[in-house]
Amino acid sequence: MKANSPAEGRVDRSGCTGTISVFKREFRALISVGGCFLIYLAIGTILTFGNLTPYLTSYLRKRVKKDTTYEESSWIFYAFISTNSLLFFGGKLRCLIGRRWSIIIGSCIFSFGIVVTYWSIQHSLAATIITYGVVDTLGYVCCYGHPIVTAVELFPNNKGLVTGIVTSGIALTPLFMNSLQTFFVNPNNLQPAPDG
């Protein structure tokens, strides 16, 4: 019986494996940059505070304290600005646990702060300042710079392009989220009543 030659019955794929692995790498890199964009889209929600202020203040007037003013509720944003002074902490955290875990922990803290605000706003303005102004900002601080670094490492020849794509997530957040917030909170776009 004659032995089959290696070429018989087989498809030569030696030239394709390199192409497939390059395609997989490029695809994963594109997906990663998309994920970095989405992280920035999410953490940019604090920039929609101007849209939320009338609703937060009205809710606090109606349910918590009747004489809550816009000046008082603006302390939530001031807490965000003040907590941003800890941005260096995100870099230190990356040195301790790595970029991936820093982003994961930061995203969880950020989400936790927003979820807990559901209960804190029913309690007091001070609790809302802590949860929406400080806790979610700590999550923001933990993961702020890391998506840009990740994107630049994946596309070292297109640093400006991927940096622009990723950071446009924060810039586009108000465009998308203001309408989404208004749709959920005030779908008929009614003015707040004088008593809240």
What does this molecule look like?
The protein has 196 residues and is mainly α. 74% of the residues lie in helices and 0% in strands. It has helices at 14-43, 49-63, 70-73, 75-83, 87-97, 99-120, 125-143, 146-154, 159-185. Helix 1 (14-43) packs antiparallel against helix 8. The longest helix has 30 residues, at 14-43. The model has no long low-confidence stretch (mean pLDDT 83).
Average pLDDT: 83
Q: Report, as a whole number of angstroms, the end-to-end distance.
A: 93 Å
Helix/strand-derived category reads mainly alpha
Number of DSSP-assigned strands? 0
Q: Please estimate the helix content.
A: over 70%
Oligomer: single chain
Keywords:
single chain; mainly alpha; 9 helices
Summarize the structure.
With 196 residues, the chain is mainly α. The protein has helices at 14-43, 49-63, 70-73, 75-83, 87-97, 99-120, 125-143, 146-154, 159-185.
Spell out the blueprint of helices and strands.
Elements: H1 14-43, H2 49-63, H3 70-73, H4 75-83, H5 87-97, H6 99-120, H7 125-143, H8 146-154, H9 159-185
